[in-house]
Design a protein that fits this description.
175 residues, 3-stranded parallel beta sheet, 22% strand, elongated
Length: 175
C-alpha cells in the first residue's frame, strides 16, 4: 500500500456488522486496523441497516453452529459491558411449523445435541400461551427463551467505537 493512503496491519473492507466486529477484535488483539467504507458507517446502504436482527442458539440449519452462537452471545454481552449499551434482547423466539418441517426438525436436533432449553407444544397450547398466534391444527410451536433480537445499528456503532478505542482508523468515502 502506498504511504499516501491509510496504513495498517489489516485492512477491513466495509464497516457493517461483520466488518465492525472484525475490526474491533483485530484491533483489540493489537494489530493496526483500517476500516474502509464507501459511506460513513453505520449507514443505510448495506445489509446491516435497520433496527433489528433475530438471534437464536437453537440454529435449525445445523447443530454445528451452536458453539459459534454461544460464543457470539458472550461477545455481545462483552460488547454491552464495554460500551454500556443494550445490544441483545433475549425476548424469546417462537418457531412454528409442521412437525416434519425443516425449521422444526432442525431446531429440535440442535436443542437435543447441545442440551438447549426449547419448549415444544401443539398448536392449541401454543395459541393459548401466545394469544395473537393463529396456527394450523397440525403444526407445533417451539419457544426458545434465550432467542431474541439484536439492535443491529447500535451493534455496528458499538463495535466501531471499540475498534477506534483500540486504535483502529475508520475511512469513509472509499469507492
Amino acid at each position: 500500500m502506498s504511504r499516501a493512503g491509510p496504513a495498517g496491519d489489516v485492512i477491513v473492507i466495509g464497516g457493517g456488522a461483520m466488518g465492525s466486529a472484525a475490526a474491533a477484535e483485530i484491533a483489540r488483539r493489537g494489530a493496526r486496523v483500517v476500516v474502509l467504507d464507501r459511506f460513513p458507517p453505520p449507514h443505510d446502504r448495506g445489509s446491516s441497516h435497520g433496527e433489528s436482527r433475530l438471534i437464536r442458539l437453537a440454529y435449525f440449519e445445523h447443530p454445528d453452529y451452536v458453539p459459534l452462537l454461544r460464543a457470539a452471545y458472550r461477545r455481545w454481552r462483552d460488547l454491552e459491558s464495554a460500551t454500556g449499551r443494550a445490544l441483545l434482547d433475549e425476548s424469546g423466539l417462537l418457531i412454528a411449523g409442521p412437525p416434519d418441517g425443516e425449521a422444526i426438525r432442525g431446531t429440535l436436533r440442535a436443542a437435543a445435541v447441545h442440551g438447549l432449553d426449547v419448549d415444544r407444544c401443539d398448536a392449541a397450547t401454543g395459541m393459548a400461551r401466545f394469544p395473537p398466534l393463529r396456527l394450523p391444527d397440525d403444526w407445533i410451536l417451539l419457544h426458545e427463551r434465550v432467542g431474541g433480537w439484536l439492535r443491529v445499528e447500535a451493534c455496528v456503532q458499538a463495535a466501531l467505537d471499540r475498534a477506534v478505542a483500540h486504535g483502529a482508523e475508520i475511512v469513509s468515502g472509499v469507492t
